[in-house]
Amino acid sequence: MQTTNRKDWPPISETLFIPLAARAAETTRKNPIFTDEKSLEMLRTIDTSTTVTDGGELATQGILARTKVIDDEVKKIIAQTPNAVILNLGAGLDTRMNRIDNGLLTWFDLDLPEVISLRSRFFSENDRVRFISKSVLDASWVEEIPLPENSTVVIVAEGLLMYFPEEDVIRFFTLLAKRFSGAHLFFDVVHRFFVNKKMSSPFLWGLDRAKDIEKLNEQVRLVQAWSTGNLLKERQSMLIRILNLLPSTRNRSQILHIQFAREDAQSNRR
Question: What pTM does this model have?
Answer without folding.
Answer: 0.91
